[in-house]
Amino acid sequence: xxxxxxxxxxxxxxxxxxxxxxxxxxxxxxxxxxxxxxxxxxxxxxxxxxxxxxxxxxxxxxxxxxxxxxxxxxxxxxxxxxxxxxxxxxxxxxxxxxxxxxxxxxxxxxxxxxxxxxxxxxxxxxxxxxxxxxxxxxxxxxxxxxxxxxxxxxxxxxxxxxxxxxxxxxxxxxxxxxxxxxxxxxxxxxxxxxxxxxxxxxxxxxxxxxxxxxxxxxxxxxxxxxxxxxxxxxxxxxxx
Length: 240
Prior knowledge:
By secondary structure, this protein is mainly alpha-helical. The chain has a domain of 106 residues: Cytochrome c-like domain (Cytochrome Bc1 Complex, Chain D, domain 2), CATH 1.10.760. The chain is 33% helix and 2% strand. Strands 1-2 form a two-stranded antiparallel sheet.
């Protein structure tokens, strides 16, 4: 070999030695040979739970102000699978006329309900219909209905009002009673703070009738011979 070949191999060998040394040194510095695992791998992402709703009015309160016209607009999403007019044909989903008050999974004659719905039991009340519209899959796991549901409580109330206008419905649940304000009389008849306590006497103000009557029974001053007023200590003695 000539000198160039020896020089080339020398450089290659030297570069390999340098690379190996750098690898060993970096492993010692960064502990690459003994990686430290975190106690909890990954990062926690604080995200709202899917489908979670903020607390709002109760069902009775929502239904008290429900609007069938607004419900008809929302129900337009359902017309691809359902009819609602009396005598309407079943489609992908059953006809919904007069569904309220009927047995769940059995109201439309001739429709092939899923076992998840036909075996659910119970009747279509305002409460069960609200849960169904909120999430069909959560209400009856395994249902053939692919609709995800209505997340808005107001939309559900309006749609139920529209459905109720086609065939009737049972009585609506009553709105929840408002909580008693602090200081008002409780259910057990506890006295209201300050009840029975009248205003105190005001100096210079005319006395009320009960106070004036009480004052009449007290000893009254009588004029003395000198013109001054003295307190009458008792009844006058005869012959004095």
